[in-house]
Amino acid sequence: MTGYNELSREGQLVSKTVTLPRLNRLSPSLESTALKIMEESGELAQAIGKLRGLSGERQRLEEEDAMQMVARELVDVAQTAVTMMFVLEEQYGINLEAILKEHLEKLRNKGYCD
To answer: What are the NTP pyrophosphohydrolase MazG-like domain coordinates in residue numbering (predicted)?
Structure first.
């Protein structure tokens, strides 16, 4: 599920909320999840390569089909990253709320967001 949180005065998107579930029937480790992120990132890169004709194949995908593939692979990367966040919280006691606050502050300090 995604949702728009807030719009700026110029009508530009300020933030987007993406809700992804904790996966059941898995016992991911830090290592297995990191490897899965790399695998999914590779599939994302492959989808982008198909869009740009960089995959070594003679036939390129139409832009609409390629962008659908890119979006699907990006969600797979995001789901795996969220899974790793659950691993960090549950197995290592990491306070991700505090980490996310630090991250937003870092972005603000760099001028990337308000």
So the answer is: 30-109
